């Protein structure tokens, strides 16, 4: 198994501590079996998310010192605008403090009660913001995404036929928005092909529906297009990114992922003269802050402007996706199922395959997450029925298409030895999986985005 060596060396280190097995048993019980309730310092390897957990470069840290903290018209704002427009080719870009802030600012301008939003797959916060606006989300991901063991390229794609069916069934006037999530996080960080982006954009235009790119992991997506879509083999990542964005009318972006910073987001409108721009600025001033900082410090915008370029560096991306491929290859050797081929920001282990005797409403994904913490102090999160939650209209537990435990890998943070610990822990759990008979029940839950806060108990 080849490990692509790091295209950097380490200058600053952060010590880790490892609790004993007994201590971890106590901690997870005190956390009510919800890994979001654990303290970061009690996790040896923290794979809860790849969002905001990345290591910045020396250039970015130098940028932090150069950050201009002017309330209005800071030079860091203009630097960020220049980088954003250069890479994405959009006429208007609004900084916001993170991805969901972009969703909160723009979704209510396009969605309301009685409307629908269609996506290849909504991430949980995008789904929540569609529901908060009064509309209803509909996922139309391709069928092969739902079969984790089926290796197919671009399992993040939209099912075009299904999308058109939904548009006709609900009526084009009732579809407020099409959202293309790249990469498709909930389907396992699976990429979307350029062809699919193009086709979705043609269909959305045909029915006069605006298309928004949920672009958190756009650079990883571009890497997959270069690797797997033959006509892009010799095209630079920057040019691929430019073409991907050319198919959107809008984009929302959590910059906490592929732009390798700890905080930040962007909201783009292709046409700077669109009437949406003034409304976005107004919402931003109310919710986020004046439109030349949008909830960010000048130093954050400066680091973000630099990270936009570091994130599309081809050597970096080869190493980055190489880490996923290495971990996935170790799981292949051990016969552990995951969403395959491996996606861009983590390995999504198929917990339903590891615990076939535990039903969806006992949350097999969460079972594996708890076991990983007990086994090796590894913190992960459920991407399955536990995360999906209840039907907003009937209150009934929904059954997710998959039961994943997500090992999301922060950027430029962990080494090959850490990846080996992850693989070894999964192998050890697989060997005793049949001894874990039951899952969890929820003893308390809030009405929306429950997985962040809910309490659980073993059955
Ligand atoms: N869209 C996608 C595809 C995401 O993955 C996320 C966040 C967001 C939007 C929201 O962005 O967190 O900056 O407000 N995903 C993180 C994750 C939290 O762990 O996958 P945010």
TrEMBL record:
Protein's organism: Desulfitobacterium dehalogenans (strain ATCC 51507 / DSM 9161 / JW/IU-DC1)
Gene that produces this protein: tnaA
Modified residues (N6-(pyridoxal phosphate)lysine): 257
InterPro entries registered for this protein in UniProt: ArAA_b-elim_lyase/Thr_aldolase, Beta-eliminating_lyase, PyrdxlP-dep_Trfase, PyrdxlP-dep_Trfase_major, PyrdxlP-dep_Trfase_small, TNase, Tryptophanase_CS
Domain Aromatic amino acid beta-eliminating lyase/threonine aldolase intervals: 46-424
Record protein name field: Tryptophanase
Catalysed conversion reaction: L-tryptophan + H2O = indole + pyruvate + NH4(+)
Binding partners and assembly: Homotetramer.
Pathway(s) served: Amino-acid degradation; L-tryptophan degradation via pyruvate pathway; indole and pyruvate from L-tryptophan: step 1/1
Cofactor: pyridoxal 5'-phosphate
Family matches, as NCBIfam families: PRK13238.1
């Amino acid at each position: 198994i080849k490990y692509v060596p790091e295209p950097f060396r380490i200058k600053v280190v952060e010590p880790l501590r490892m609790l004993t097995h007994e201590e971890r048993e106590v901690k997870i019980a005190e956390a009510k079996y919800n890994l979001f309730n654990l303290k970061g310092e009690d996790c040896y390897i923290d794979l809860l998310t790849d969002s905001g957990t990345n290591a910045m470069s020396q250039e970015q840290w130098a940028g932090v010192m150069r950050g201009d903290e002017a309330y209005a018209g800071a030079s860091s704002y203009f630097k960020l605008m220049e980088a954003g427009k250069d890479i994405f080719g959009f006429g208007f870009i609004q900084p916001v403090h993170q991805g969901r802030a972009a969703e909160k600012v723009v979704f209510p301008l396009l969605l309301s009660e009685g409307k629908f939003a269609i996506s290849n797959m909504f991430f949980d916060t995008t789904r929540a913001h569609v529901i908060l606006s009064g509309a209803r989300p509909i996922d139309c991901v391709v069928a092969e995404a739902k079969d984790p063991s089926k290796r197919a390229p671009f399992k993040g794609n939209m099912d075009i036929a299904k999308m058109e069916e939904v548009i006709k069934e609900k009526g084009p006037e009732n579809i407020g928005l099409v959202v293309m999530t790249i990469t498709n996080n909930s389907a396992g960080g699976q990429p979307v092909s350029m062809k699919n982006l193009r086709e979705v954009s043609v269909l959305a235009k045909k029915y006069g529906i605006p298309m928004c790119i949920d672009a958190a992991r756009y650079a990883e997506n571009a890497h997959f297009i270069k690797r797997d879509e033959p006509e892009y083999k010799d095209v630079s990542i920057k040019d691929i990114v430019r073409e991907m964005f050319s198919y959107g009318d809008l984009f929302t972006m959590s910059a906490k992922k592929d732009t390798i910073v700890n905080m930040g987001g962007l909201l783009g409108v292709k046409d700077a003269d669109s009437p949406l721009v003034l409304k976005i600025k107004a919402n931003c001033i109310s919710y986020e802050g004046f439109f030349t900082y949008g909830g960010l410090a000048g130093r954050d915008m400066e680091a973000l402007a630099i990270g936009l370029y570091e994130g599309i560096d081809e050597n970096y991306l080869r190493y980055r996706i190489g880490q996923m491929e290495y971990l996935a290859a170790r799981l292949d050797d051990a016969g552990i199922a995951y969403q395959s081929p491996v996606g861009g920001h983590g390995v999504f282990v198929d917990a339903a395959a590891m615990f076939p005797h535990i039903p969806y409403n006992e949350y097999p994904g969460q079972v594996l997450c708890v076991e990983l913490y007990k086994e090796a102090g590894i913190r992960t999160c459920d991407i399955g029925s536990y995360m999906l939650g209840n039907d907003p209209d009937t209150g009934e537990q929904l059954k997710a298409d998959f039961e994943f435990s997500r090992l999301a890998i922060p950027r430029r943070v962990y080494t090959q030895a850490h990846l080996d610990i992850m693989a070894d822990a999964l192998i050890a759990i697989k060997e005793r999986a049949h001894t874990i008979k039951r899952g969890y029940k929820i003893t308390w839950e809030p009405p929306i985005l429950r997985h962040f806060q809910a309490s659980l108990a073993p059955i």
